[in-house]
Structure prediction request, 363 residues.
Amino acid sequence: MRNKLIFILAAVGLALGLLATWFFSLKHPPQPPAFTPASNPYGQGIYANGIIESYLGSGQNISIFPEVSGPITQALVAEGQAVKAGTPLVTIDASVQQQTVAQQKAAAEAARTLLAELKAQPRPEALEVARAQMEAAAAQLHQLQDTLAKQRRSFEIDPRSISKDVLDTSANAVRVAEANLDVARRQYELTRAGAWSYDIANQERTATSLEKQYQASNALLQKYTLRAPVDGVVLAINGTIGSYASPQGTFDAYTQANDPVVVMSSSQQYLSVRVYVDEILVHGLPAATQMVAQMQIRGTDVKVPLEFVRVQPYVTPKIELSDERQERVDLRVLPVVFRFVKPKDVTLYPGQLVDVYIGTKGH
Prediction:
């Protein structure tokens, strides 16, 4: 019985082995590719990696960094939104600066008010007081002069009627009254003349200085709102409400690096492609007037003709195209910039990698 069972198991194993051998020996037809791999459309074309960018004068996206520091309080636009130049994008907490501006504005207004007060002198009420003081001094002098005259006449009639000491005292009182009247007149003239020109000039400079301080503080206050420098599209907002922003940007916990608070592109009717040509292939680049190029979007069969824009005439170490980290390598490359009209039926974004072939017209 035992030998029979062993024989059956051996037969089953042999059958399974033969079946497996037959199955794995079958040749399955290859699956068609999801897309046609990039191929050189030119007889002597140069291949290079490219990265899509905004079409700007420098060929770069617009990286917006604040000139002040503080936590982000508002994000006023959304990523992908088209904006006009001057549109507020992000606000930074400006509570301290707002109080500084208010204080300096009040100081400037106080200085201007004091300047207006100086220019408005003499004050009518003050001039009336000075005139009244002058008239009172004149009246007192007249009274003392009359008294002295009477006393002298009495003394001339009868020297025993008034003592010499009384006459001297009255004469002294008249001289004091004359001096008081002269002081009152001078005070009246000084009041009527108004503020001294030097005081006005000094107050004008003080008011101007405080006004400039206020304007500078108010200009700095405007820096707490990041605005679009040009018409374009918001590509990225790096930082949420509460994130700390500084002139170095916002800290990214994933990359452990600082990113610009806002990244913008120009109007996306055109996009550009920055191509990095290996330095050993630079000598094979055709002249600008003879250069043609084509890019293929990775993962698709879409091919887009490119228009030559310029060569950035500076060979540099290649950087990591995927996130532009400054990872230096031995390979050195020459940047060449092309542009193309954004296809209507294909979705493309700045930062996307593409395959580019560069050739010569007629080849």
Summary: The mean pLDDT is 86. The longest helix spans residues 124-157.
